[in-house]
Write a structure and sequence with these properties.
32% helix, 13 strands, 2 domains, single chain, 14 helices, alpha/beta, Alkaline Phosphatase, subunit A, five-stranded antiparallel beta sheet, globular
Length: 401
């Protein structure tokens, strides 16, 4: 894999425009009955037309067999090796809502969840409570008193919140409390490094107190914590490739990750149509656009095959608006697979569509996992996609004499 330093040396200025359209959790698996994936079942005439004109392939977000979280999945798409650059979910949520972090902060992403009388989880997301309800509950958590530590708790979106543990010697290296399945109790926080023991004790006390103060609340009567992390230092995509980059995303976490990579967050509405309208409104101001669609992933996690199909079709209907802007390079892909039949992130490679005037067309009939198996891009790691994108955008010069 080409290093970021080498790519920076090869980068050259250009006036070209690039759109990276990410349908979160795009990849699927065949359903019983007709054997179709969500992309197979979706009516996507516009994406299919681009597939016939462009190049297809499959990408492993991290490496073969590795199931990625959203952070590593997107880092790969931005050209970073997720095994080298590791960023915890807590930081991404904090940066995504513009919460300032200091060197004394340890961030964690929280879920409000539901537990029964025995303390067993019955819903990991508390029924996806409204954001307004989340905002009414976070002040209860912020009032928890832990000696030597300041707690900063803020709502993010729906059942998600972020907590900063601010104090001396509060280090990362902690396990998460989410067992990732119902019918089990939240896990205790474990120190995975000797220097993290103090932070583990603090986090466990916070969780215990959270259960006490939320006992009368329903369905959000408990919390799950994950992604304990300090603020990272990440090379900027904008400096590596010399692009002016924007992120258009509804959910704060994705804005946070993009901001760490040097992108500027652009305010947008909640719908797919809103996001494409935002792209239209700022297309003259930037030359690299990361446009993120979340609900394909949410539908996959809920096991709602038809809903995921409908979101894919909704995005397809907006493609003519995007093409009317005349981008030089368009990439359509996902950060990971979330098959509705699996109801979770999976290790399966993600379909990739790259379209530009410099493509050697595959002649594919459709944009599906099956067609992507035979495309010119081949089967690559996601981090290898960005050099291809920049080459098609005429933003890389010749290597060597």
């Amino acid at each position: 894999m080409v290093s970021l330093d080498d790519l920076k040396a090869l980068s050259r200025p250009a006036q070209t425009k690039i759109v990276l359209l990410v349908l979160d959790g795009l990849g699927g698996l065949s359903r019983a009955g007709d054997g179709k994936t969500e992309l197979d079942a979706a009516r996507t005439p516009n994406l299919d037309r681009l597939a016939a004109q462009g190049n297809l392939g499959l990408a492993d977000p991290v490496a073969p067999g590795i199931t990625p979280g959203s952070g590593p999945g997107h880092l790969g798409l931005f050209g970073y090796d997720p095994l080298r650059y590791r960023i915890g979910r807590g930081v991404l949520e904090a940066v995504g809502i513009d919460l300032e972090m200091t060197e004394r902060d340890l961030a964690a992403r929280g879920n409000f969840c539901t537990v029964d009388a025995k303390g067993l989880i019955t819903d990991r997301r508390a029924g996806r409570i409204p954001t307004e309800r989340c905002a009414s509950l976070t002040p209860l958590l912020e009032k928890i008193g832990i000696p030597g530590v300041e707690l900063i708790v803020r709502p993010v979106r729906e059942h998600r919140f972020v907590v900063l543990f601010r104090g001396d010697g509060v280090e990362e290296g902690l396990s998460e409390t989410d067992p990732q399945e119902i019918g089990k109790p939240p896990l205790p926080v474990q120190a995975e490094a000797p220097q993290a023991k103090k932070a583990a004790d603090i986090a466990n006390r916070f969780v215990a107190e959270a259960r006490r103060v939320l006992a009368a609340e329903h369905p959000a009567n408990m919390v799950l914590l994950r992604g304990f992390s300090k603020y990272p230092r990440l090379p900027k995509l904008t400096e590596i490739y010399g692009v002016r980059a924007a992120v258009i995303a509804v959910y704060p976490m994705y804005r946070g990750l993009a901001k760490l990579a040097g992108m500027q967050a652009v305010k947008t509405g909640d719908t797919v149509a809103d996001e494409f309208a935002t792209l239209e409104s700022v297309f003259g101001d930037f030359d690299f656009f990361f446009l993120h669609v979340k609900k394909t992933d949410s539908a996959g996690e809920d096991g709602n095959f038809d809903k995921k199909v409908s979101i894919i079709e909704e995005v397809d209907a907006e493609i003519p608006r995007l093409l009317a802007l005349a981008p030089d390079v368009l990439v359509v892909t996902g950060d990971h697979s979330t098959p509705a039949t699996f109801k979770a992130h999976s290790w399966h490679p993600v379909p990739v569509l790259l379209w530009s005037k410099w493509c050697r067309p595959d002649g594919a009939a459709r944009f599906t996992e099956r067609e992507c198996r035979y495309g010119n891009i081949g089967h690559i790691r996601a981090a290898e996609l960005m050099p291809l994108v920049m080459a098609h955008a005429e933003r890389l010069t010749k290597f060597g004499a």
